[in-house]
Amino acid sequence: MSSLNKWLLILGVILIAANLRAPLTSIGSLISYIRTDLELSHALAGTITTLPLIAFAILSPFAPKIAHKISMEKTIFLSLSVLAVGIVLRSLFGTASLFVGTALIGVGIAFGNVLLPGFIKMKFPLKVGIMTGIYGVFMNVFAALASGLSVPISSIGQLGWKGSLAFWSLPAFIGIAVWLPQLRKGKKQDEIDSEDQNPGEKTALWRSPLAWAITLFMGLQSLIFYTVITWLPEILQSIGYSSSASGWLLFLMQFAIIPVTFIIPVIAERMDNQSLLSGLTGILFILGLAGVLYGNHTLIPISVILIGVAGGCAFSLSMMFFSMRTTSAIQASEMSGMAQSFGYLLAAIGPVLFGALHDLTESWAAPLIMLIGVSVVILLAGFEAGKKKVINETLEEEPETLSV
Questions:
Q1: Which of 166, 151, 138 is nearest to 258 (CA)?
Q2: Is residue 291 within 8 Å of residue 306, measured between CB atoms?
Q3: Category of 328 on φ-ψ map: left (φ > 0), alpha (ψ -120 to 50) or beta
Q4: Is pLDDT at 93 greater than 90 in this prediction?
Q5: How many beta carbons lie within 10 A of that of residue 130, not counting itself?
Q6: Which of 115, 134, 186, 376 is a Cys-bridge partner for 71, taking CB atoms 3.0 to 4.6 Å apart?
Q7: Residue 125 burial by CB count (10 A; 0-12/13-18/19+): exposed, middle or buried?
Q8: Taking a C-beta distance cutoff of 8 angstroms, is the pair 231, 288 a contact?
Q9: What is the distance between the alpha carbons of residues 134 and 140, in angstroms, rounded to a whole number?
């Protein structure tokens, strides 16, 4: 690979990462404007954010299958194209266009989420850690930028909320242009992996205790992240913080994620066993959530940072496990699809369950204790996922063991 092609490939990975969260976070601060303009109920407006998560859960298992047929490069290109169309469509017309465009965005991001870890394993086998770190950093940086800049952009001239949402199609179109050279190099995954792929590998994932440990680790950290993103401001306001201060604390949590998503993959790649890192992640979640439950204003900023650091660790380790615990790029994609399908289903359920517990108990204590319990499971699942094994080895050692 020439130096130019190598840098184009790295830039392509960065641009894909930049598009995996920004189209979602850009809409959060504009919800009130959208709801007023289109006369949506609160419940209907809430589905704008949950619809992509449902798409992630349903479609994630299909991404590796399509990549297997037409190549990973072409599938990623198509996902970027669908994403760009979805961003433009949701900004053009009325309510129907908003929801159809949002659904297409969910489809595009679902495929990118699943395939990128396997693509990194395939193209950068000796640099998985640093490339996963780069991917995580740019994904979270653009997510934070989209969240913070959407309202200021909407106030420029006559752009409004539609123009602001349409603005975030630019990274997608740039990504499509940069990715075009990769289409000439795409090979079907069965050609790439024919020499080392076990024919039973894909179905074996669902029988592997290790695969289920990775899936639980990924899924439960997603549940905590999306639940905290949804409810933390209201929890903080209930203990005396202003809406503005609550928003800044939520920003602090997301900011704490960014450096960790680069550092942890680099460290994890150099370790034979990542159980210590996984266990530490669960402990940080427990300490951070316990601090929010305690409600002391002096401890709250520290607690919020701990939750952010834990979330960054958990996400980065999940992406690393997809590569480090599998034997081929297609198996990494299959593992990613399994974990993210289950994970985003939990992510969609988490905020609703958390809110329902609050309604039942008229207190934030019970739902926060539930998340602390989830953190304990993350600690246990992470300890297992962090052991130096690959999925095929696990099946050979424990052929009769069924996943739970």
A1: 138
A2: yes
A3: beta
A4: no
A5: 15
A6: 186
A7: exposed
A8: no
A9: 10
